[in-house]
Amino acid sequence: MSQSPDTHSLLSASSQLNLMEVDSVRDSKCILVRGWRESELRATAAAAVKKKTVDMNVTVHGCVLRHSLLKGISAQIVSAAVRIISAHWCTSSSSADTNQALRLCLGTKTTGAEFGAVSALSINHDCSRLLCGFAKGQITMWDLANGKLLRTIADAHPPGTAILHVKFTDDPTLAVCNDSGGSVFELAFRRVMGMRSCDSRCLFSGSKGEVCCIEPLRSPPDFREHPITHYSLLAMASLTKILVIGLKPSLKVWMTFPYNKSDPTSVPQLAWQFVPVQKMVNPVLAFCKGDTVHFLLVKKEESGTIHVIKQRQLQLSCDIISLSWINSRTLVLVDSHEKLHVVDRPSQEILETLDLEQVQLVYNSRHFKSLATGGNVSQALALVGEKACYQSVSSYAGQIVYLGTKSAHIMTLRNWRERIDCLMKQEHFVEALSLAWSFHEGTAKAVVGLYGDSLKRKAAVSDKMVEILFQFAEHALKKCPEQGKIQVMEQHFQDVVPVLVDYCLLLQRADLLFTQLYSRLVENTVAKGVFLESLESYIVADRLGHLTPAIMRDLLDHYHGNGMMDSLERCIVHLDVTSLDIQQVVRVCWENQLYDAMIYVFNSGMNDYVTPMEVGPCFNENVVMGNKLLVYISCCLAGRAYPLGDIPEDLVVQVKNQVFEFLIRLHSADSSEEEEVFPFIRTLLHFDTREFLNVLAMTFEDFKNDKQALEYQQRIVDILLKIMVDNPDFTPSQVGGLFTFLARQLAKPDNTLFVNRKLFDQVLEFLCCPDDDSRHTERQQVLLELLQVGGVVQFNEERLLILAEKAKFYQICEFLYEKNHRYDMIIDCYLKDPLRKWEIFNYIHNLLSMPGYSDEEKQTVKNKVLKHIQVNRYTHTHIHTHTHTHLHRLKEGLPSGAILPLEGDLHELLLDLLCRFAPDQLLSFLHTSQHYRLEEAIQITEKHRCNDATAYLLEKKGDVQGAFAVLLETLKEKLCVLTAERDRGGEEQDADGAGITESALMKLKESVNDITVFCHRSCQGLNQQQREVLWFPLLDTMMASQKQVKGLDAKHTSEVLKELTMKVLNAMSSFIPLPAIIQQILQDPVYGKGKLAEIQGLILGMLDTFNYEQTLLETTTNLLNHDLHWSLAHLRAAVTRGLHPRQDCCNICLQQYKRRQDSAEEIIVFSCGHLYHLQCLQQKDCVGGFASELQRQWRCYKCSSSHGGRGGSSTEAKRCRSTSLAQTHVTSVHNDTAAVAHRKKVFAEATLDLQQEQSWDQIRCLYRGPSRLSILSEVSHCHEKPGFLFSAQPAAESFQLKLSPPPVVEE
Length: 1307
Description:
Blueprint: H1 8-12, E1 19-21, H2 23-26, H3 30-34, H4 36-50, E2 65-70, H5 71-83, E3 90-91, E4 102-104, H6 109-115, E5 118-123, E6 129-134, E7 139-143, E8 148-153, E9 163-168, E10 174-179, E11 184-192, E12 195-204, E13 211-216, E14 233-238, E15 241-246, E16 252-258, E17 269-277, E18 280-288, E19 290-300, E20 306-310, E21 314-327, E22 330-335, E23 339-344, E24 349-355, H7 365-368, H8 379-385, E25 393-396, E26 399-403, E27 408-413, H9 416-425, H10 429-441, H11 454-479, H12 486-494, H13 497-506, H14 510-521, H15 525-540, H16 549-561, H17 565-572, H18 582-592, H19 595-606, H20 623-638, H21 652-663, H22 679-687, H23 689-700, H24 707-724, H25 732-746, H26 757-767, H27 776-788, H28 797-806, H29 810-819, H30 823-832, H31 840-849, H32 855-867, H33 873-892, H34 902-917, H35 922-928, H36 934-943, H37 947-957, H38 960-988, H39 998-1018, H40 1024-1046, H41 1051-1068, H42 1074-1082, H43 1085-1088, H44 1096-1136, E28 1162-1165, E29 1171-1173, H45 1174-1180, H46 1197-1200, E30 1224-1229, E31 1238-1243, H47 1248-1262, H48 1268-1276
Antiparallel strand pairs: 1-2, 2-27, 3-4, 5-6, 6-7, 7-8, 9-10, 10-11, 11-12, 13-14, 14-15, 15-16, 17-18, 18-19, 19-20, 19-21, 21-22, 22-23, 23-24, 25-26, 26-27, 28-29, 28-30, 30-31
Helix pairs in contact: 9-10, 10-11, 11-13, 12-15, 13-14, 13-15, 18-19, 20-21, 20-23, 21-24, 22-23, 23-25, 24-25, 25-26, 25-27, 28-29, 29-30, 30-32, 31-33, 33-34, 34-36, 36-37, 37-38, 38-39, 38-40, 39-41, 40-41, 44-47
């Protein structure tokens, strides 16, 4: 079978000069064309090498597409356009003709003038026929073998429309076309008796939605026998949806998929491709309109049914105008800015972006607008045509051809070698290695030319990567700056060397790294140093465990020469010891105190676990070495290697025994006469006793069935006791730590240790020595810790208690008392302990409140507590803050039925203490406590002259007059104090009262405020006469005080007293009529004789208050009347509004409201518009509430019932439109069968409550914002003091109350 004459054979032949790769021009600026992706890769690679490792997660794709210009064809396009105004042309495509010469020129000038321009082309699968569609609607068929015209079809579709698409199907006798009217037609070719004919059938009419793109499923040669090809599937894209239909065996629609909302100028695109999915190959339809690509998998079931399954969609940020498959995993898209995007479908990743501006794509706008036939197309189709380029893009067999105005371009996928070479040509070696590694691991996208077998693929790519590594190294050495700062050279090689190391290790080619590459890098001193330093991260990560002797020697010299000893130590402990020069390494480690590396070399290289510990006697002042040695001993005894790993299993027991033998040595190897016995254990104890004992404790945990180890354990314990007991070199804390360690071991159930009990007694005597005051807290804490871990079983408790009391170890005493449940004695421990005496109340509270203690134990503690209560200033403060709760718990903890004489006495005692020592906290206590007796409390407060508390208690008792008298007496005392101080101040200082203390005035203000608040609070339940008895004495007192200070020329004091008097008048004006207040003032003999000037301000202030209140009353009345009128008007409008049913059938039975012509039925219409038969409502029990027969209240069944469309049960509390304002009963009356039906509407009388409720709902919906009535109500209930009395203002005659206007209401 011959191949398609489009592009497949054009590239397979060597086109020589006629096929020019655009890449030769493009490669130099490939980075700029791809835009952000390449720059991002460079930045990522640079960041990776700075970390001295290569980030394997960086994705590099390189140049995926090869863009080639068909030079010969492009030249022929231009010349043919100049020479011939013809409909179309065709070029030679045989492999023998490599010059791409013009082979056929189909049509003439007459054809062009008659049919117009070619608007669509299609070639059948065997390349023998060509279908051409024209701008004026004709279709022609040509024989490509000889250029003969076979058919001219002019009546396949309605005249006056251009052909937008014409496509062959897999059946050579069947084709489809699409015209500018949006219709799709099937063309069936026939040949009978030598006569060629064509039958046309409309598949989709443009009147149902204009189709602007069609795509039949055409199978490649390998899938011609696929079962789905028998259905001749056709995909059609209209302006609103996608359709997939089958032409065979009969016309059938298999799927319809609507678009999402998109730009009306977006062009629909369709593309079929056979894709392997779950070991099956099935066609996938990719379609888009706008920026989203959808994928539909089409499968044929065994039953013959075709299933269309939606796959994951692809979201882009551009408007797509062309969509093509280049293989089963890769799509090529062109957006409205003529940017080409290569997209990997499985990962939805954009692999490359190219600019097609130089191609100058040809658009099909003239044909979509049907200008050749008069432009009779819809506006929507004309908008789509602005971006349509369907006939300028053609894909086949992994190649895509783009037709420009003066040239033809072809896009193909590069093979893997070309993609790598393209990056190397641009000297992007890091990206080339990253891309090659993705080929090696099989993670690359759009791969062409690699083996399917994994081993063969990796072998081929590995060879290529080795080539890149050599070229990269040579390039780095050649480009290295010969002069300049050393930092510049180091940075240059830091960008190169770690990459070389990383990829050599990834390829498992350490031999290549340490021989050929290192031999080249060592020529440059800077490169050599960077190389050696870069090895550290790989060695520490255990990616590189073996070095050649030469490199190991250079590594030691470089790190040692540059002072990088910590890095050197990290490398040594991770390297294979066989690659180390042990003598050299040990020497360097000893000289530089690399203890970890030294221990590792001795352990791994010589199986010597004892020599590293022999430095013990000399590390006493080296904390780092001492800590490491403790950890090393712990690891050896636990079977773990130091600093990492595990000791070989066959050496674990041997190592443990060696360590124990070392620890219990009597003398060191190089001992002197002055050396003490057991130097190693002694040194470790002096270095850190607690940590060394912890190491032994963890080791002893594993000694259960090992007889030899148990012997070592007992031996070490004996040595510890011999060294530390009676040795002044060890502190009490160290000795206590030893016996704590022993107590823990002895307390174990499987203990095998033996310790003489006399030693514990000896330690006890040592710790509890009363004559030694040094380290008292430390000794007590050590002994307490010893007891807590089980050491109490080793002591005589009675003797221990006696010694603890002598030594003043009160925490030890508490421990013993707690153990014997003698909780009352613990009280004494807290009281005697100066450091914890403040915690006694917390202890009492916890003991009495927590469960677990018996009633007898709690009672004993209570009795003990009461014996120790002493009244002093500390006690009263603590009682007020804490003890009240504790004393109350004493009462609660008593057994039921017991006599409680302490209840009142305790609270009254507390009250008396507060009166004496904390009178400022007395009122707070009286407000919060409810357990005192009222009469006794009044007597106590009167005794101590706590007038505020007395007044509160009298008011609580109900004696208002008594409370008022106490407060008034307090006020008079304050006034007397103020007057007396003023008198003294006038004698000693100047006349304007500067000597009066501000504290007296502040106390006076507080007293006036208290009594005013009291009168205001008490007047709520009193009559008019009782109110006057309260307020008038207060007013008289305040006015009399002004007379007393008048003669002293005290301007400041007089102003303060006037202000306070105005405050009293302001408060009393809410309860006492103004005439009564004026009359009371005038009854004073002074003012009754005509001296009213002094009270002029008071009277004018009362008049201002009257004017204000009168204006406020009038304004409020007007507002309320307006609101009432507005509400009633809307209520009347809602009630009298006519009801209009939504439909003429009952919403329950769904029958016409006039079911029978000869009977009268009552009908109920609700305000919501629903209509029902009365009988239907009665059956559904939709009566709401209880009412008489005439006042029956109905509910709308559909709105309020759970059976209705809105759901939810109907309740009286819910307000909705389901109950009408006027429930209308309509009675249909029919006098005879021919008479016209008359209806009589009767409005049922609704109850007032129901109407008010529904009207209020409507008012609330219309009235947006709070009503003025609610605002005024809220103002009237605020907690401000009633009455507004202002001092007289000079211009008060034109006083006006300014209020905001009512809110605007939308009708």
